[in-house]
TrEMBL record:
Matches recorded under SUPFAM superfamilies: Glyoxalase/Bleomycin resistance protein/Dihydroxybiphenyl dioxygenase (SSF54593)
Family matches, as Gene3D superfamilies: 2,3-Dihydroxybiphenyl 1,2-Dioxygenase, domain 1
GO molecular function: dioxygenase activity
Superkingdom of origin organism: Bacteria
Organism name: Haliangium ochraceum (strain DSM 14365 / JCM 11303 / SMP-2)
Protein name according to UniProt: Glyoxalase/bleomycin resistance protein/dioxygenase
Family annotation (CDD domains): PhnB_like
Record-annotated PhnB-like domain positions: 5-130
Annotated keywords: Dioxygenase, Oxidoreductase
């Protein structure tokens, strides 16, 4: 078996639609597809009908997937994963970093790193960890 790719899957507990709009604005992400639980099954409980069952967004050349999940279900245990973004323009990356940090927490400010790249990390307002690495000088 040969892997084609690995894609981060974000569990957003009822905030997927809000997060999609935020990622479009902050990262310039494009919504590829989105499906609600109610589109799948007419017998879906009313509380579930409008929740995002599955969505796919393109971020640069990569993808992220997300879901609202079930209303009473906690996100999977062990959410110790970060979405790593490799970037080519430090100035544009700083703007994206700052936009994504709004309402969240900066872990490492976007600065020149010891290995020569520009690097920063943060947790966004949805609890998702992000790392930005840019090899281009600013």
């Amino acid at each position: 078996m040969s892997f084609q790719s690995a894609t981060p899957y974000l569990h957003l507990n009822g905030k997927a639609e809000e997060a999609m709009a935020f990622y479009q604005s902050a990262l310039g992400a494009d919504l590829i597809s989105s499906q609600r639980f109610g589109e799948l099954d007419d017998s879906c409980p009313a509380a579930m009908k409008d929740r995002i069952m599955h969505a796919v967004m393109k971020v640069g050349e990569g993808m992220i997937m997300m879901s609202d999940g079930m209303p009473d279900a906690a996100p999977p245990a062990g959410m110790s994963v970060s979405v790593a973004l490799s970037c080519t323009d430090a100035e544009a990356t700083r703007k994206r970093f700052d936009a994504l940090a709004e309402g969240g927490a900066v872990i490492a400010p976007f600065n020149k790193a010891p290995w020569g790249a520009w690097f920063g990390s943060l947790t966004d307002k949805y609890g998702i960890a992000w790392m930005f690495n840019c090899d281009q000088p600013s």
